[in-house]
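Subject: for your reference before the review

Hello V.,

The reviewers asked for a structural picture of the protein, and I figured it would be easier to keep everything in one thread rather than splitting it across files. Below is the amino acid sequence we used in the manuscript, unchanged from the supplementary table.
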Amino acid sequence: MRVLGVDPGLTRCGVGVVDGTPGRPLTMVGVGVIRTPAEEEIGPRLLRVEQGIEQWLDLHRPELVAVERVFAQHNVRTVMGTAQASAVAMLCATRRGIPVTLHTPSEVKAAVTGSGRADKAQVTAMVTRLLRLAEPPKPADAADALALAICHIWRGATTNRLAAAVATAKQSSPRSREYRR
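And here is what came back from the structure prediction:
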């Protein structure tokens, strides 16, 4: 599975592509940051984010896009920019028919480091180790994007299989047959 991870941000939007399946070594395909100038108006900045995401989608052809779920922070302005960049990433993927999934920061940290309270340095160190990279991806937004992709490969595939198993079990249960009559 090829996953594009997006760590949304208006000034720096981290993007990272990882190939892999659960239980097998993962491979980094690409990593980077889409940047926009802070002094520019919001419209042109969102357009730059959209153009950057579209380039990554064209170049890497992911099967899924994993985006960090926006969570409330004390700085409303930061949350708004993050939410807007997140929406742009989801729109770009959806427009192409690519499934989108959202993962919380603590879910990503737990998947990559084993602790939902890990700091950025711990996440970066584990991403570097898991992808067998010669040096850590920089800036932290790039490492976070790779962590999102890793999280989805490891957790998303399992979650999808569990959901499918539950759906199958519901359809084949005796109670389910009673309701269908």
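For the response letter, the relevant points are probably these. DSSP finds six helices and five strands in the chain. The beta strands are 2-7, 12-19, 27-35, 64-68, 100-103.

Happy to draft the paragraph if you're swamped.

O.
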